[in-house]
Amino acid sequence: MAESGYESVICVKPEVHVYRIPPRATNRGYRAADWKLDQPSWSGRMRITAKGKIAYIKLEDKTSGELFAQAPVEQYPGISVESVTDSSRYFVVRIEDGNGRHAFIGIGFVDRGDSFDFNVALQDHFKWVRQEGELAKQAQSGENAGPKLDLGFKEGQTIKINIGNIKKKEDKTSKSRPAGSGFLPPPPGGKGIGVIPPPASQPPGIIEPPVSQPPQTSTSDVLFDLSPPAPSSGTDMWGDFAAAPSSAPGQTPQTPNWVQF
């Protein structure tokens, strides 16, 4: 993979402390408790940049931005950056001066979240490097595999598709429809339209006399009798009104009981 020509910033922390560390006595690792944590040798800001596959840890002055030290990282985890065994906020970094000389220093963060971001920034960068390398290998192996298989249609080429389930579905739909005239049944509890059955056929030679039916009376005739009343002899048509006593002033007139208001 060709190295990128520009440099990108992947992490910035405004405060970091630098410590002088004693030589490692055993192969167990570094311990921050052996450092003078209350007397840092230098304090400033830290920037992590990436150029191609390499990440650079740069320690700079907070005000002027002057570079104090730089640590190129080609692999993480690796020899360039190591965690201490007794804390998650301190690391050992291998710095270089550009002339082939290198030294190991200790760095520490006041906030535990800053140390987490420092760790994640390096992990994400080298994860991206591995993915880019795998994609490049796949592209190279694909080019060496030979010509790609052409599965497209040629000019004038056609295909025939036989869909055999459509007719069966239509037959099933027509069978599922109920036979009849299409009228919906009456609702539950409702009275449907009565159909008078035809008269039964009579045997030959027997004639039944017609059945006389009573005259039909309409509902309006039952409720309101419109025929004039028959005059009764010796009866006054005014009824109780003629016999009602005259009401005196200041008295409520007595209405007969049969008058309904």
From TrEMBL:
SUPFAM superfamilies per record: PH domain-like
Location within or outside the cell: Cytoplasmic vesicle, Clathrin-coated vesicle membrane
Polar residues bias: start-end ranges: 248-261
Region listing for Disordered, in residue ranges: 164-261
InterPro entries xrefs: NECAP_PHear (IPR012466), PH-like_dom_sf (IPR011993)
Residue span(s) of domain NECAP PHear: 6-164
Role: Involved in endocytosis.
Protein family membership: Belongs to the NECAP family.
Name of the protein: Adaptin ear-binding coat-associated protein 2
